């Protein structure tokens, strides 16, 4: 579902990624892990065409990322998702739903709001939402598009323990999705991921989650 070959990327004259290779199978849940500044966001932005890369290829759902069709198979939730503060939760959902090429599905909007436990707060202005509620609303927007590939950039960043557990629970309940999730919380990825892509020195090594956790505890993977 996600295939990256020999990707190299320099940012502000600094070589961040060097011949990165990563393959994520259908329905795998892969954590993207690395120290601060290792290039996790750079890799995601390069994959999604938000940042140019010097060489290499990226395919998302079998579609090269240079073709616009890949957007039909990917939903992306950035670390800081910009919502509209003067709108309610439901109005935000309806606005982002209207950006899709198909007709707005009111039933799906309600379903996704319920899925992230915002059904009762749907008519409230999001200025009254907690940070956890805002993050869950962003997740609901992303899930509305029902893409087979989901890319999450630090989805629990800045949340309290309760808020983190709520997000992880939603991710855990997703079915038939291929997920790439950037994170630096090992206990979180242990709960939701099947594999880990460890980014270090501009290159990636992929592990099954149990192998990574065992090696990490011994210090071999860091």
Taken from the alpha-carbon principal axes, the silhouette is globular
Unreliable stretches (pLDDT < 50, length at least 5) are none
What percentage of residues falls in helices of 4 or more residues? 25-40%
In DSSP terms, counting alpha (H) and pi (I) runs of 4 or more, how many helices? 7
Structural class designation = alpha/beta
Overall mean pLDDT score? 91
Largest sheet: 6 strands, mixed
According to DSSP, the number of beta strands is 10
Distance between the termini: 27 Å
The fraction of residues assigned to DSSP E strands is 25-35%
Strand order of the largest sheet: 6-7-8-3-9-10
Radius of gyration equals 18 Å
Oligomer: single chain
Features:
222 residues, alpha/beta, four-stranded antiparallel sheet, 27% strand, globular
């Amino acid at each position: 579902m996600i295939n990256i070959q020999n990707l190299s990327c320099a940012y502000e004259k600094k070589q961040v990624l060097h011949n990165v290779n990563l393959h994520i199978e259908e329905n795998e849940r892969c954590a993207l892990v690395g120290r601060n500044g290792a290039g996790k966001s750079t890799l995601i932005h390069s994959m999604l065409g938000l940042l140019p890369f010097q060489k290499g290829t990226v395919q998302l759902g079998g579609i090269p990322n240079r073709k616009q069709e890949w957007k039909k198979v990917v939903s992306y939730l950035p670390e800081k998702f910009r919502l509209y503060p003067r709108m309610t939760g439901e109005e935000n959902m309806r606005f982002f739903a209207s950006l899709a090429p198909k007709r707005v599905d009111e039933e799906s909007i309600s379903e996704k709001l319920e899925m992230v436990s915002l059904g009762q707060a749907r008519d409230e202005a999001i200025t009254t939402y907690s940070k956890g509620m805002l993050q869950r609303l962003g997740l609901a927007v992303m899930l509305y598009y029902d893409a087979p590939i989901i890319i999450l950039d630090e989805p629990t960043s800045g949340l309290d323990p309760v808020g983190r557990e709520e997000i992880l629970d939603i991710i855990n309940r997703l079915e038939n999705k291929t997920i790439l999730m950037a994170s630096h919380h090992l206990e979180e990825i242990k709960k939701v991921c099947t594999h880990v892509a460890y980014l270090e020195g501009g290159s990636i090594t992929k592990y099954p989650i149990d192998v990574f956790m065992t090696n990490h505890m011994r210090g071999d993977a860091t």
